[in-house]
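Subject: design request, 294 residues
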């Protein structure tokens, strides 16, 4: 079985080896992004094959958080990577092997349906983020709402109230809709910063094939009162880069992300919002960051 998907205007393909227990039922959140098989360029191709075995030797070179779990990364002799993905219970559910630029990969899945689904979804998210980094494409850890045609991304570490704040936008600002609640795609295309829905949205099932120009980024912090200010360039860079899926030890990926973040800062305002989980915080952020239209 071969399936093709398009996320953020970029296409990729998933090949399920025949005769195994894996198929596209493992990734229902990808259904809204499925397309016909075409000859257009792909950012990556991933083969799902439980007979795939590790070849990397040596020590773990790093870890990164993805899907709420830390995943170990190992370097292969050919310059590629092997990533051992574990779920929140610490169970290893997926082995991902890739070439050096993440354009080709294989995964072996392990465990029950839940483990396999978690592993494959996270492997696809990793492949997408790192294969497309050189295209000014970023996966942001953010909750994003759309209002009057513009997307507004709220950033912050887990527990800072991103979902609560965007939920209050939906409650108090008429005409607002949720585009994604955890991993929207951000791209800089033809001089414009655009946010896209994605198949990856954390604990909130919001898998929408939608897009919008970006109106603003907002770094959130819980506080005893509501205050907002615009960030300077250095502050904005410090807010945006840690919010992206990144492997600092890979110069190609890291360089692409730094370039993409720089372009965003040059074209989109970034704010810092100290807030309470209430309507006043929403009104303050809305009146400050919304794009004023004629």
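Subject: RE: design request

Done. Sequence follows.
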């Amino acid at each position: 079985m071969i399936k093709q998907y398009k996320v953020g205007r970029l296409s990729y393909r998933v090949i399920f080896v025949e005769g195994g227990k894996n198929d596209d039922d493992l990734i229902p959140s990808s259904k809204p992004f499925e397309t016909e098989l075409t000859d257009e360029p792909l950012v990556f191709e991933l083969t799902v094959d439980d007979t795939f075995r590790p070849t990397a030797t040596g020590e773990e070179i790093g870890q990164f958080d993805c899907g709420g779990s830390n995943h170990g990364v190992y370097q292969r002799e050919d310059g590629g990577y092997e990533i051992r993905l574990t779920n929140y219970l610490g169970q290893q559910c997926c082995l991902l092997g890739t070439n050096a630029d993440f354009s080709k990969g294989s995964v072996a899945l392990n465990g029950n349906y839940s483990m396999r689904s978690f592993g494959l979804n996270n492997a696809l998210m990793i492949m997408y983020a790192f294969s497309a980094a050189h295209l000014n494409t970023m996966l942001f850890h953010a909750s994003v709402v759309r209002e009057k045609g513009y997307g507004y991304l709220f950033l912050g570490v887990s527990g800072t109230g991103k979902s609560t704040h965007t939920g209050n936008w939906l409650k108090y600002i008429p005409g607002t809709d949720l585009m994604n609640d955890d991993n929207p795609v951000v791209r800089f295309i033809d001089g414009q910063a655009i946010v896209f829905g994605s198949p990856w949205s954390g604990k909130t099932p919001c898998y929408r094939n939608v897009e919008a120009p970006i109106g603003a980024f907002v770094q959130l912090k819980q506080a005893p009162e509501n205050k907002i200010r615009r960030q300077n360039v250095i502050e904005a860079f410090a807010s945006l880069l840690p919010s992206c899926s990144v492997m600092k030890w890979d110069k190609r990926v890291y360089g692409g992300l730094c370039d993409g973040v720089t372009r965003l800062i040059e074209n989109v305002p970034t704010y810092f919002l100290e807030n309470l989980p209430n309507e006043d915080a929403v009104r303050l952020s809305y009146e400050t960051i919304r794009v004023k239209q004629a």
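The chain has two domains: 2-131, 137-289.
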